[in-house]
Amino acid sequence: MAKRTKTGKRPPQREPKPERQAASKKDSGKSVAQNGRTLTAADLAKQLREISISEFFTKNRHLLGFDNPKRALLTTVKEAVDNALDACEDAGVLPTLIVDVQPTDREDRFRVRVEDNGPGIVRNQVGRIFGKLLYGSKFHRLKMSRGQQGIGISAAGMYGHLTTGQPVAIISQTKAGAAAHYFEVVIDTKTNEPKILKEEKITWNGHTGTSVQIELEAEFHRGRWGVDEYLRQTVVANPHVSITYHSPDKQTLEFERATDVLPREPKEIKPHPHGIELGMLIQMLQETRARTVHGFLHSEFSRVSARNAAEICEKAGISEDSRPGNIARREADALLMAIRETKLRNPPLDCISPIGEEQILAGLKSSIEADLYECVTRSPAIYRGIPFLIEAAIAYGGNLPADKPARLMRFANRVPLLYQTGGCVITQSVAALNWRQYNVDQPTGSLPVGPLVLLIHIASPWVPFTSESKEAVADYPEIEKEITLALQECARKLRVFLSRRRRHAEEQRKRQHIEKYIPFIGEALQGILEFGDGERTRLVRQLTELLEKSRKG
Amino acid sequence: MAKRTKTGKRPPQREPKPERQAASKKDSGKSVAQNGRTLTAADLAKQLREISISEFFTKNRHLLGFDNPKRALLTTVKEAVDNALDACEDAGVLPTLIVDVQPTDREDRFRVRVEDNGPGIVRNQVGRIFGKLLYGSKFHRLKMSRGQQGIGISAAGMYGHLTTGQPVAIISQTKAGAAAHYFEVVIDTKTNEPKILKEEKITWNGHTGTSVQIELEAEFHRGRWGVDEYLRQTVVANPHVSITYHSPDKQTLEFERATDVLPREPKEIKPHPHGIELGMLIQMLQETRARTVHGFLHSEFSRVSARNAAEICEKAGISEDSRPGNIARREADALLMAIRETKLRNPPLDCISPIGEEQILAGLKSSIEADLYECVTRSPAIYRGIPFLIEAAIAYGGNLPADKPARLMRFANRVPLLYQTGGCVITQSVAALNWRQYNVDQPTGSLPVGPLVLLIHIASPWVPFTSESKEAVADYPEIEKEITLALQECARKLRVFLSRRRRHAEEQRKRQHIEKYIPFIGEALQGILEFGDGERTRLVRQLTELLEKSRKG
Predict the structure, then answer these.
(1) A364 occurs within a structural domain
(2) With a cut of 0.90, is the ipTM above it?
(3) Which of A232, A280, B6, B201 is the most buried (most CB within 10 A)?
(4) Residue range B407-427: average pLDDT?
(5) Is the dihedral of CA A456, A457, A458, A464 positive or negative?
(6) pLDDT (tens digit, 9 = 90+) per residue, B295-333?
(7) What is the distance in angstroms between the Cα of A213 and the nearest Cα belonging to chain B?
(8) Domain check: are B234 and B363 in the same one?
(9) Which residues are bridge partners to A180 per DSSP?
(10) A344 CB contacts (<8 Å, ≥6 apart)?
């Protein structure tokens, strides 16, 4: 079917049609409408319409994590918990959450309520936060946080409204001791604007905080993708959080905080010039308040010293004093080339707040019984100009199942990722590592098999998720490399542990063997050398000690 | 860390902290701000901002298939070709495309141009089609087409502008013989609105059509994820298409059409009531032009006969003559329950246009040399009220590599899917099938291994993709089931072929064995019975025939 002409070589394929025949057919298609279809450009134009972002995500709600009722329940809890934790931490408050999933009179509908002790939400923002997609505080800054897109919680509310017709119910109190506000909000999917159906003052908890309630079509279940598991993993990565969970089957789980120290607050950073693209650079040049290109480079980016800025201008052949607004596209292009050729310090790393080895190990030990715990926090690295950091931990042995694939816990900015395991660079990196080299079984290209739990955390001011549901991390090679390095470091310690254990087991075996025979040797020597029973006992003891010593030496 | 109270049982986990201590810590977090952070609700409110959809996708461009320069090139070609093919088919024209990928003076930048012989685009729509995300003709209708979201081509233009600062250049001619229009368009990412930088009349081809040119940062390569492979697979699934491809290394590939019959035009359909949700139903009730609920049900949905509509109203306890606009939420809920309980005919199937067994086999045979070709077109099935259809084909043997995993070609609405293989329900279904049962090697949970090519096509008025880049299909259980059934049907035929071939090979072996010995038997008998050489030859022949006959019987 395919054929190269001109300088091309013939591809190794069959030719079903001689060229001339095809050429005539090509012509035949040009003007004659077929099958009675004769739509003109004007006809087609009539069908064109704008699509609101809410309509888009209503129809594509699997992109947001609402493809089935099981997952919808988890996604809703997750979005509400993420928001609550972010708000508390931003305000410097140790988070105390109530997660309440209640059945309704219809078995396919549940009421999810998440309450926090954060700072609350000011009145005039409530509508847009819960009733407008793409609205939030985290998108336009480079700062590590759980939420980043301004979609999650309004999408959950939209799904709830779509499936049950019920609005999102919000209580917010921004001042301790003052009145709280109660709101009912829905999203107008045609315009992506909030509609506030009800607003009233109420008396609430006494302290500040927010409560969000969403009724939705859902399915409740325990296990690997359940709310229980999500919360359990959440407290492993967030030992400073306290959560009370009331499940639909009338049980209550109390997750108590294991530390009362808040994680170090990650700093907001400016973009690093090595991650910038031409279009972005042009836009920043137009919008900057800096009066000179030198000032622009120095002030709008991280890690551009005054000397670096001068060097870049010189390389680009642009005067340091040029006004940024006057830089033409060609000059911007030269500027970008100069930036890329200039050696700059890596982005600052205080924008990342790792969980930390101590906390991870504490979290693992409190939830998993094993013989070996190891943890590695890597130094930060860079993808597309954005810093990120990988932490990896393993737990091995104990009563973990020995004949099953390792259990993998994935985290991004302290949030557990439960879905889309296969499509995540974390899973792919674990499967790509050669575990047999570390004495762990592994079917080719799959997760290792053994009494093993793996925990991987990626922390970054911008985690590249593979979809809006934020359940899997995209496979940037830099990220894969860091995960692999972290895993290798853990796996090496595991190998040492395993060989020591094997050596120890072997020694035990040999020792038992020798111990078993020494008394007979003692008896034989007693017969030959004719000494008493006391002498024999002493001899046996000495022989045992001697052998033991020689083995240890 | 976790502990159940009330009716709950203790989970099998360790308790790191006694309850009292934790309780006191819980209190300590409530009001005291830590780490010097004391952001109030008002402080947090100041950080809130609206996010334009273009900003969102600029930052998340991996969602659209622009995560690296290799993939960016393919995605750009793909979006332009999809649009061109849709336009031609909508107008009833046999598509004749030119795909031109040219190098520029910078080795990391390419110029992609795709030209079609479709109906062209009317002047006042050009800006929005190429300079506004979420604008298109295909989102608001349920009709099978390649594009569906109104994102693709403007996203490609946005990426091009972002990386090279160049606008999208469009030529459109809507009337043969008249003048064509030339446009240069960019997208304003802050507002998601088009800016037309240039517009002028030019003399062009003479016939109607559209040409789109995008300059972008990209990387050119051949092979599995290259433009060549994409176009090659495109013509397998679209034998009515003719494409001329000029590659950056000065080669030209001609893909000539193998048929001059356009695929049957898929019909636009109305939603099927069994896929509807409460929120959607309420919205439709508000917007309908129907004057009664009975009329609403009958006219706004597919497959609701007058009798069905009456039955639904009765079950819901709603008068048939009620005005749709007056239906309250509770009544709508009752209506939805009644709809779900009412048996309705499946959605109409003429909304799907399969490639067809004959065309698929022709496509496969023209590009792959094998010993066996099999193809199955399933009957349409339904997910979430939306019809879809699966086609599967296999090619086996020939000079395909015997020791490698099967090559899998995935298609959605005739478009080849090259990326995100692992995250696609098609791949997952292939790997989940037990191929050993069909005498094909398979590492557990992986693709089968052998001289095997698999082709799977999903056709639907709404394909549920896992991301906006439309490279993988979401795993709805109904879809997985249909793929499995189609594969099983092909695999059964393969098993028959393989056992026949094995039997044949064995027969060959036996036959050779016997043939080898018959002459000796002949000689032996000649010695015993003393007849001439002619007699011996006859005997040998008869013996051979006899043995052969007995084997066949």
Answers:
(1) yes
(2) no
(3) A232
(4) 92
(5) positive
(6) 999 999 989 999 999 999 999 999 999 999 999 888 999
(7) 17
(8) no
(9) A202
(10) A272, A273, A274, A303, A304, A308
Closest chain A residue to the Cα of B37, Cα to Cα: A92
Are B136 and A51 inside 8 Å of each other by CB? yes
Q: Which CATH number belongs to the domain containing residue B125 in this structure? A: 3.30.565.10
Which pair of structure tokens corresponds to residue B128? Answer: 């929005």
Which three-class secondary structure string do you get for A186-217? EEECCCCEEEEEEEEEECCCCCCEEEEEEEEE
Residue numbers in chain A where pLDDT is lower than 70 = 1-38, 513-515, 517-518, 521-522, 524-525, 527-529, 547-553
A466/B92 touch (CB, cutoff 8 Å), yes or no: no
* Domain, as residue range, for B72: 57-255
Contact B41 A208 (CB under 8 A): yes
CATH, residue A302: 1.10.8.50
Residue A1 domain-assigned? no
Q: What is the pLDDT of residues A221-280, one digit of tens each?
A: 887 789 999 999 999 999 999 999 999 999 999 999 988 989 988 888 888 898 888 888
Q: Do B122 and A45 touch (CB under 8 A)?
A: yes
Domain boundary among A483, A498, A513: A498
Q: Which of B412, B141, B178, B124 is nearest to B270 (CA)?
A: B141
How many structural domains does chain A have?
4
pLDDT for position B550: 60
Contact B483, B390 (CB under 8 A): yes
3-state helix/strand/coil string of A373-439: EEEEECCCEEECCEEEEEEEEEEECCCCCCCCECEEEEEECCEEECCCCCCCHHHHHHHHCCHHHHC
- pLDDT recorded at residue A314: 95
Could you tell me the two tokens for B171? 């030529």
Contact A231, A78 (CB under 8 A): no
Do residues B204 and B180 touch, judged by C-beta distance below 8 A?
A: yes
Residues of A with CB below 8 A from B119's CB?
39-41, 44
My answer on whether B96 and B209 are in the same domain is yes
- Residue B226 pLDDT > 70, yes or no? yes
C-alpha torsion angle, residues A44, A47, A53, A57 (rounded to 10):
-100
Task: Give the pLDDT confidence score for residue B23 in this predicted structure.
Answer: 35
Distance of CA B392 to the CA centre of its chain: 13
Q: Which residues in chain A touch residue B125, judged by CB atoms under 8 angstroms apart? A: 45, 48
Q: How far apart are CA A464 and CA A477, in angstroms?
A: 12
Q: Could you give the angle at which helices A278-287 and A329-341 cross, rounded to 10 degrees?
A: 110
| Domain-embedded: residue B104 | yes
Contact predicate A473/A463, CB 8 Å: yes
- How far is A465 from chain B, CA to nearest CA, in Å? 8
Residue in A closest to B330 by C-alpha: A165
Residue B402's CATH number: 3.30.230.10
Does a structural domain hold residue B524? Answer: yes
